[in-house]
Amino acid sequence: MNAEELKKRTKEFAKETIYLFRNMPNTPETWVIGKQLLRSATSVAANYRAVCRARSDQEFASKIGVVVEEADESAFWLEIMHETDFINTPASQKLEKEANELVAIMNASRQSILKKLNRN
What we know:
Blueprint: H1 3-22, H2 28-51, H3 57-83, H4 90-119
Helix pairs in contact: 1-2, 1-4, 2-3, 3-4
């Protein structure tokens, strides 16, 4: 998967999270957990765009680390929502799967660049 495909994929993840958030019940939990999810999921896409503009391998490694953290946080909030029956829909399950896949992809990329940096 190339950078442009990942840009589209992370942007779609952000958009799908926005759609999920719009359909959440209007409760105190929504305002806490839902907003946390919304922030982390949209951050994945925004920070991945910054990764694509990294000026060095060191900067790339640092920025991709942020993307890994935000994707993992998104997965966490979705897990919490499912485990507490706050929201457990096919859309939210799909987003949790995507969050975990993005963590794996971004972490693999991070590990590759860290190995390259340690060889130099």
